[in-house]
Amino acid sequence: MVPARKASKSAKRNRRSHHALKPLNLSACPKCGTAKMPHRACANCGYVNAKISLKVQTEEG
Ligand SMILES: [Zn+2]
Question: Could you tell me the pTM of the whole model?
């Protein structure tokens, strides 16, 4: 199908000017130092905060 009123290059580019992805906001894990996302458990050691720490599956078992 052909659109009745095709958007101009300018209108299309203006609309897509908001589509860019922002870089991930990573912070260092206070326990092991690897980069982790805020409010997420650390993928390396499972640390969340002083009270909570998740068990992470390691290669040893
Ligand atoms: Zn960690």
Answer: 0.54
